């Protein structure tokens, strides 16, 4: 490992127990290895979230440009809210 920095972290008891259990069970060689794996997963998830956010911003910009150019359908706030709630519910159950 090229650059290594030692950090001290504080975790809730259940998280610390899960990490220790993973090491004791032989899934990982050390607690540091567990944390590194978790951080790699977090970085991937965060990158996906940022991509989704950028796509959402692009969609909003496109929608605003369509409104400005007069390219729009009748606005139905209730329908849009219902669709958004459904998309959010579908996303929650798949995550």
From TrEMBL:
SUPFAM superfamilies: Ribbon-helix-helix. Keywords: Toxin-antitoxin system. InterPro entries: CopG, ParD, ParD_sf, Ribbon_hlx_hlx. Transmembrane segments: none annotated. One of its GO terms (biological process) is regulation of DNA-templated transcription. Belongs to the ParD antitoxin family. This is Type II toxin-antitoxin system ParD family antitoxin. It comes from Methylosinus trichosporium (strain ATCC 35070 / NCIMB 11131 / UNIQEM 75 / OB3b).
């Amino acid at each position: 490992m090229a650059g290594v920095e030692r950090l001290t972290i504080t975790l809730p008891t259940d998280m610390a127990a899960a990490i220790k259990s993973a090491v004791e069970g032989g899934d990982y060689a050390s607690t540091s290895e567990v944390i590194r794996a978790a951080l790699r997963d977090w970085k991937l998830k965060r990158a996906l979230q940022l991509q989704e956010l950028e796509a959402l911003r692009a969609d909003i910009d496109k929608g605003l440009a369509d409104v400005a150019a007069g390219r729009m359908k009748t606005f139905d706030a209730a329908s849009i809210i219902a669709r958004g709630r459904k998309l959010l519910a579908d996303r929650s159950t798949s995550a």
